[in-house]
Specification:
single chain; alpha+beta; five-stranded antiparallel beta sheet; globular
């Protein structure tokens, strides 16, 4: 009997842990995308001022108001070139609590490298 109780507890624990982060819904994706665009634009704006910004969320997991996402931010520059930076962001509602950059185009590579070193 003890084995089945332990097995049931493990299964219940796995279900609860799995439901803590579900996929973001459309409303949360919009909030998260805007928060990322605002944060990245504020941090990289001096390095590369943009005319148009796009945020692609490769993976967005959320639960109630929390989120954890991988993203790619793209910006069309004044000269028509597209600069981009990839990373991971975590936060609550529309507030970024932690953002880390992993890769970037040549226009933002120096910024990304400095930000990655500073974040560690």
């Amino acid at each position: 009997m003890m084995k089945s109780v332990m097995g049931a507890l493990v299964v219940c624990g796995a279900l609860v842990a799995g439901s803590a982060f579900a996929e973001c819904d459309a409303t949360q994706e919009k909030m998260v995308g805007k928060a990322i665009a605002d944060a990245v634009a504020a941090e990289t704006g001096k390095a590369a001022p943009a005319h148009k910004e796009i945020v692609d969320l490769d993976r967005c997991e959320g639960g109630s108001s929390h989120f954890d996402t991988r993203f790619k931010y793209k910006a069309v520059m004044a000269d028509g070139k597209v600069a981009w930076i990839e990373g991971r962001a975590r936060g609550t509602n529309d507030r970024i609590e932690d953002i880390r950059y992993t890769r970037a185009s040549t226009e933002l590579a120096a910024f990304a490298q400095g930000a990655m070193v500073a974040a560690r």
